[in-house]
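Researcher: Good morning. I'm working through a list of sequences from a screen, and I'd like to move beyond sequence-only analysis. For each chain I'm collecting a predicted structure so we can compare shapes side by side. This is the next one on the list. No need for commentary yet; just the structure.
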Amino acid sequence: MTVPGAGVEVCGVSKAFGFDGHRVAVLEDVSLTIGMGEFVSVIGPSGCGKSTLLKIVAGLLDADQGSVTIDGESVSAASAEKKIGLVPQSPALLPWRTVLENVRLPLNVNRRANHGRSMGDAEGLLSAFGLGAAMGKYPWQLSGGMQQRAAIARAFVFDPAIMLMDEPFSALDEMNRDLQRIALLDFWQSNRKAVMFVTHSVPEAIMLSDRIVVMAAHPGRIAEVIDVDLPRPRTEEAYATDTFRELEKTVRGALRAQTEKGHV
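Model: Good morning. Structure tokens for this chain:
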């Protein structure tokens, strides 16, 4: 069940890169709504603008046309109020700080934004992600999966309304990736933030999401939105269900259609 209200509202967003007569359209007229408490994955062929769209929602890039609102506010206002949590592809942990110090870092660097906010407990977040015994360790002492979990915990420490994740598990092997997505799923099911999750993995998108947005490329646009009707809470047993297998066929078929169009 999602919470009423739009967490993310993307309206008619277009974006091109380049100069003068050599501009290339990356996104064209993209509109998308993610409700509060809803987990939405964005998937599509390489070059379809998935990460560009996420960066525009995060306020890291400006759209050429269209608008984005976060919890009813402009992106800049939502960012200033720390309503946006961002998890990039790389954990980007500071090697000279312990895991706990890395997770606490956002609370230390912007104390004004902390005023009047309900903050996440850094120790509690790390314990929830299975890192309770690693708080005093340094990033170089952790596996890649553990580093990424620490980065996710850091993004949650401000208790953001919206979580944006750009292929956070892409550098991991499949077994480790599956362990990390189940850990994320367990934690998310306990707090239900609005999530926009960029991925290339079909099983990952199905396991995590309420809806899957399939994008077409050249230029990037929304081709299809697929509802994921797997009951929640979800566990690893969901992979073996007929519903999961049928959804996998549907999503792969939609992706194949867009990939074939891109080669015509």
